[in-house]
Design a protein that fits this description.
By secondary structure, this protein is an alpha/beta fold. Among the domains are: 69 residues, Tetratricopeptide repeat domain (Serine Threonine Protein Phosphatase 5, Tetratricopeptide repeat, Alpha Horseshoe); 78 residues, no CATH class; 136 residues, Nucleotidyltransferase, domain 5 (2-Layer Sandwich), CATH 3.30.420; 210 residues, Rossmann fold (3-Layer(aba) Sandwich), CATH 3.40.50. Helices cover 59% and strands 8% of the residues. It is globular. The relative contact order is 0.06.
Length: 936
């Protein structure tokens, strides 16, 4: 491709700032609810008027987001107070200094400043001024600790701050520190305590008289509820806040709340898989952004609202184009799928309607929104917010340009917008913002294939980001540098850069819960591709054994990252596993299939320690062209739909293709009968039951291989057999054969009564021979009773015959009990209640009537989430809902094999499925049962 333009030279845009390397990473955290300066009241030292004015000057600079200048002034103030031995105001200045360092990403300096502040406040008198400053310093310390990935210490700091605020009667400070506690509890995985804390804040705030302060507290609470994933509650609280602000006739507060309501509505849209509800949330979000822009008189609020609207419209274009692409793929395969002429006509009309809607969106963006933003952004004074606004604007325009290269906006115009952020970051001496701006400018050069300039800019962005240990932006520039070096043919340096990007992402694991992901963060767009591109790179050509080994580690790391993203926190302690030892000891083959941008790749680790790598070009379409990864994923989705429909046909050819791609070459490696095939499945492939792969004569389940899945070797539980001694007479079995009226109404059309569950529960109880007190049916099966049964029994097997849903969103993954849902985040408190060392982990969790969410092609992630959160070494679940009499048959046979015939779990399940297959050849009946985790 020819060069499209020549952007500015490096010398015209770059004056590198001095670097100061720091040892820890910084992540963007939700703003501490209370103003970081409290009421910023100085203690009175009459002779220090000039010094107090110096401190207030620093506060003004901080609030203007001129953080580097604020640091200088706060240092001067601290030194001046020290000179006159005014330790209380010196401590206050050091507290503010720590906050300014945190904004600049200078965490080591921030830690030193706040530690010095607290040291000055040690053993002082108990005056109100002293206690107020100490509470502020504890809040600042907690904020820093959360950023550093120390949520437990942050929680202690904020708990102490709450006590102090209450002691001096500071309700605003107490409210803020309690909301901050909820963020730390969320990061620790203590979801119920986090929710209880936020509920208590809401109740206490509701009792207060209406005021701007009350509206502000509810706004802060609503924002935090969104960050921790409680979106419905966030919307409710923000609406309460809005009503109060409207009554108080505060236009700016109303606009601020409308902006937050737009962010919550957008988050709800992101979680909604039903098309109509999704559109409703998007429209609601757009309306709130537009209202905020028209309500506010502040240029920055107006700008932020319109930038959010622009981003949402841009994402809408992406979604429409994706829908159009899928319909066009269906049209291309119309003859193969024997579509009628009316069906073809309807598809063609859909393509035309979407094309018109896309053009309407582009017109709205370029003719209305673009000139408004362009005019407004020019009026904003230099600040961190201004820099971020320019970057946000440029990023949206880059994405739009990629979708519509013939747009009226040129690459040069976008570059001019980014250059403003570069210049402002230089002016403010803000290395974090400077790194961000230079990285985006480097991306522009990458888009236009001006590789030398792109590399130089990106290397500068890397140096700045890593210099302040800002891994959340440094990983992006390492990834970008890897792409650029690869394009320039410098493969070894490119691989090294990709690996460093992965390392940065790993360092962020403990920070995931505190990242504000309302609008800025997309795992699929901004994290997942780093792993996939690197694996694709490693597996090019004749890969060395070392490259194959690294590729498996990267795939495992991706699996862990997906679950971290699912839970919004580091879900488990990932560990390094010696794969060869498991292979040999357990006669096990690990199979990693991966969907790459242009091909399928499979890595197999054999029992003899050998590693095999196979790649397959995607098949060709009717026109003789290789299909895309989008088409491959659509093929998988359509195959999954056929398998889960008992009346469907014509699925065997696709099952045969996937057999050839995923397992045929591995099975040709002279494997012994009874070998365990353990799959680490990727993305959409999780929706295909491996048991149903077809070799032209037999399904894979009919061959003498035991099958299991694992979310990744880093999450693999201890591989030990379930002994007869542990199993005998020790299980908890619960189920719902009928639904209480409230639940039946709520889930009308989705979940129906399961009359055969009573037979399932009773028959399994007979097989496992459990005491009657551990058999919970219908109204006996509540959250409380199952929790107590698990806690008191030390049972190795927990069997739940109840409706439930697996989703790619933790909020939408749950099981039903008689008195309501238990979501995946609450499972830990239900199933991990054993307190003594003598009580052992759950060996087997069975969920026999759950299903994946419709329209969610990543819903199987919820199965892995349940397995992780329950702490069970093995989880048996279903990909789709089948008739409850069929389930009862499979479950009874499974337990008979497990208990009476002493089979390992994977073999016991396989034999039960094969037995059912004899009478029901369609995979709908026997294929959805999958075993995750320990197969022994």
């Amino acid at each position: 491709m020819s060069v499209i333009l020549t952007l500015a030279t490096l010398s015209q845009i770059m004056t590198p700032l001095p670097l100061a390397a720091q040892p820890v990473s910084q992540m963007t955290v939700p703003a501490v609810v209370r103003s970081p300066f409290g009421r910023w009241t100085l203690t009175q030292s009459p002779s220090q008027t000039d010094t107090k004015q110096l401190l207030q000057q620093g506060l003004q600079l901080y609030q203007a987001e001129k953080f580097a200048d604020a640091v200088k002034v706060f240092k001067q103030a601290s030194q001046a107070f020290q000179a006159v031995e005014d330790e209380l105001n010196q401590a206050l200045a050091l507290n503010y200094l720590s906050l300014a360092h945190q904004q600049l990403g200078e965490l080591a300096k921030a830690e030193k400043a706040i530690d010095n502040s607290l040291a000055l406040l040690h053993n002082k008198n108990g005056s109100k001024e002293y206690l107020s400053i100490r509470a502020q310093a504890l809040n600042t310390k907690g904020k820093l600790q959360l950023v550093q990935g120390q949520p437990e210490q942050a929680l202690k700091s904020w708990e102490e701050a709450t006590v102090v605020y209450k002691q001096i009667g500071d309700e605003a400070g107490s409210t803020g520190s309690q909301i901050n506690q909820a963020q730390a509890l969320q990061a620790l995985g203590l979801y119920r305590r986090a929710n209880n804390t936020l509920d208590a804040v809401e109740q206490s705030t509701d009792k207060q008289s209406d005021s701007i302060m009350k509206a502000t507290r509810l706004l802060s609470l609503g924002n935090t509820l969104r960050v921790v994933g409680n979106l419905g509650k966030s919307q409710q609280v923000l609406l309460k806040s809005l009503i109060i602000a409207q009554r108080q006739q505060s236009k700016e507060k109303v606009a601020e709340i409308q902006l937050s309501l737009g962010n919550t509505a957008q988050a709800l849209a992101n979680n909604e898989t039903e098309e109509e509800k999704n559109k409703g949330y998007i429209q609601k979000s757009l309306n709130y952004y537009r209202q905020a822009a028209s309500t506010s008189e502040k240029a920055l609020t107006q700008l932020e609202s319109q930038l959010n609207e622009l981003r949402l419209l841009r994402l809408g274009v992406d979604k429409l184009l994706d829908q159009q692409r899928k319909i066009q793929l269906k049209l291309a395969a119309a003859d193969k799928n024997k579509l009628s002429e009316p069906e073809k006509k309807e598809l063609s009309e859909q393509v035309q309607r979407i094309s018109q809607e896309v053009q309407n969106n582009f017109s709205d963006i370029y003719q209305r929104l673009f000139p408004q933003i362009q005019s407004r952004i020019a009026t904003v004074s230099p600040s961190r917010s201004s820099i971020n606004a320019h970057i946000n604007f440029a990023q949206s325009l880059i994405k739009l340009k990629q979708k519509n290269n013939s747009s009226n906006i040129s690459w040069r115009e976008i570059a001019e917008i980014v250059k403003v952020s570069v210049n402002q970051a230089q002016q403010l001496q803000d290395n974090r913002a400077y790194s961000h701006a230079l990285g985006i400018l480097g991306n522009l050069y990458e888009q236009t294939q001006q590789w030398s300039e792109a590399q130089n800019l990106t290397e500068q962005a890397v140096k700045l980001g890593e210099g302040i240990s800002a891994s959340d932006i440094a990983y992006r520039w390492r990834w970008q540098l890897g792409r650029i070096l690869r394009a320039r043919g410098d493969n070894e340096e490119a691989k090294a850069s990709y690996q460093q990007a992965i390392n940065h992402l790993k360092s962020l694991r403990n920070d995931l819960a505190v990242v504000n992901r309302d609008v800025q963060f997309s795992f699929r767009d901004e994290v997942e591709p780093v792993y996939r591109e690197y694996v694709s790179f490693l597996l090019e050509g004749n890969s060395s054994e070392e490259s194959i080994r690294v590729a498996t580690e990267v795939i495992d790391s991706l699996q862990v990252a997906e679950l971290d993203n699912f839970f919004r926190r580091a879900c488990v302690d990932a560990k390094t596993v010696q794969l060869d030892e498991i292979d040999k000891k357990n006669n096990t083959v690990f199979i990693y299939p991966l969907i790459l941008p242009d091909r399928l790749a499979v890595i197999a680790s054999l029992p003899n320690g050998a590693k095999r790598r196979y790649t397959f070009d995607f098949p060709k379409d009717e026109s003789g062209n290789f299909i895309t990864s989008d088409k491959m994923e659509q093929t998988i989705e359509e195959l999954s739909q056929k398998l889960s429909n008992r009346n469907s046909g014509e699925f065997l050819p696709d099952l045969h293709n996937f057999y050839k791609w995923l397992v045929q070459k591995t099975l040709d490696s002279d494997l012994k009968k009874g070998t365990n095939l353990v799959f680490i499945l990727d993305g959409a492939l999780r929706n295909i039951p491996m048991a149903a792969l077809y070799d032209g004569k037999q399904f894979l389940i009919e061959k003498e291989y035991n099958l299991a899945l694992t979310p990744g070797l880093q999450l693999l539980p201890t591989i030990t057999p379930l002994t007869a001694e542990r199993l005998e007479r020790r299980a908890v079995i619960a189920g719902l054969s009928e639904l209480p009226k409230g639940i039946e109404q709520k889930y009308s059309g989705r979940f129906n009564a399961l009359p055969k569950v009573a037979d399932e529960v009773n028959q399994i109880a007979k097989e496992v021979k459990i005491p009657v007190r551990q058999r919970l049916l219908n109204n006996q099966f509540t959250r409380t009773t199952i929790t107590e049964a698990v806690k008191s029994s030390n049972a190795p097997v927990i069997h739940l015959a109840t409706h439930g849903q697996f989703s790619s969103q933790a909020e939408n993954t749950f099981i039903l009990t008689w008195n309501g849902e238990v979501n995946v985040n609450e499972l830990k408190s239900v199933l991990r209640t054993r307190e003594t060392k003598q009580q052992e982990a759950i060996e087997l969790l069975v969920l026999s009537a759950c299903q994946t969410a419709k329209g969610d092609n990543r819903a199987t992630l919820g199965i892995a989430g349940v397995a992780i959160q329950s702490g069970a070494r093995s989880t048996l679940a279903t990909l789709w809902s089948v008739t409850d009499d069929t389930t009862a048959t499979v479950m009874t046979e499974f337990y008979n094999n497990l208990v009476n015939k002493k089979m390992p779990k994977a073999e016991a399940l396989r034999q039960a499925q094969v037995n059912l297959l004899k009478n029901h050849r369609h995979p709908y009946f026997w294929a959805p049962y999958i075993l995750v985790g320990n197969w022994q």
